[in-house]
User: Fold these one by one.
Assistant:
Number 1:
Amino acid sequence: MAIPERSGPIPADANATRDPPSLALDEAQDGGSRVVLGARAVLLRGFARERAPALIAAIGAIAGVSPFRHMVTPGGWEMSVAMTNCGAAGWVTDRTGYRYDPIDPATGRPWPAMPETFAGLAAEAAAEAGFPGFRTDACLVNRYAPGARLSLHQDRNERDFEQPIVSVSLGLPAIFLWGGRARSDKVRRVALLHGDVVVWGGPDRLTFHGVHALAEGEHPLTGTFRFNLTFRRAL
Ligand code: SIN
Ligand code: FE2
């Protein structure tokens, strides 16, 4: 993930201005189980819903070892999304830049191992989206509280862009911002609901994407949070 750099001080929510002004969604909410986002990008509606309780329990175990924290961008801005990781390497950002690190800087120890439930889901969703044989080695766990957001970015710290991204939504709904290959491309707004999985790869691998500021809410399994699991092949 590459968070856009800023030259001067900005308030924490200043890049909200980069989002389209309306909260209206571009997707019909009654659609089928697949929403096509691109030639090689698809939203698998509800793909992870049945196993969501197990995934959420596993997030709790991961956070017990490597706690959620608000990382700082190279430009010095604290991210509104709280993050942790599991797997062989974790995505981190600090004043020195973005990287995958086998050691959690907050604990000085390796990240928690990737649970089987995670790796299996990532492989199944990737295969369902046309990317058979996906073996994830890094899972970024994002926690959104109301107001937390992720500005438009590309996931580009991974070694091999032939490998897809698999992104799982849990808990409170969010509005996904799905752009194009250039930051200035038109952005589509798509609802991401509990249990949804988005997979993108091939020519869509470097698509700009982000998450609109989370709305207040209460979810039976995650309370006042939304969680996102982003599976990558990082190394
Ligand atoms: C990300 O791009 O890392 C997260 C996307 C999401 O939270 O849905
Ligand atoms: Fe991303």
Number 2:
Amino acid sequence: MKIIKVKNVEESAQKALEIYQNVLNNGARVLGLATGSTPIPLYQKFADSSLDFSNLISINLDEYLGLDGQDKQSYRYFMTENLFQYKPFKYSYVPDGKSGNYEVATKNYDQIIDDNPIDLQLLGIGRNGHIGFNEPGTSFKSTTHIVDLTQSTIDANARFFEKKSDVPTKAISMGIASVMSAKKILLIATGESKAEAIAAMVNGPVTESVPASILQQHSDVTIIIDEAAASKL
Ligand code: F6R
């Protein structure tokens, strides 16, 4: 793991932007993307940059179950609001949260990933060490699947909803094996609330209880962390 320590959120986004500039100059064509608070400063930098994504494909990590792309809380909507409206891709895949048949939806998503191997997968990390919506206990062999969100994740995501009872309790997520299939991985973590998860990911044992710990076994992972997220290393 290559760890880049930065002072603050602004610097984390700047460093990440530089990594994207480099990877795109070297011919990357498929970007794995994430939602949540962490990547927003980077997406703002993308929007303000001269980077052109119009020949690229994006593949998002996850989506809430039961929300379609018009729903303001959906991750498809989040991506449109924060990135796609400014920087359209040739094609942008987000898991289908409203599919009537989740067996088909998960298989289709795996096929999309197989057909479009991810050059650079962007990740945030949950306070409990989740990546994508792969909660503690998820098999390292998992591909796209339906997930029961843990209470800790529901609580953390409640800030985006009017009422906690509005937060979906299930999601469709790329699996851990799908994430690990990316050629390169970039994980960004900022803030004190991520410090414990970062310490467990970097220095703890590789265990399914800490999904992000599997990244120790990927050959090309970069972690960008600010001082607060690095405080327990
Ligand atoms: C989002 C995702 C999640 C988040 C994680 C951190 O697509 O897959 O794993 O990256 O929950 O969320 P934030 O950045 O809001 O702290």
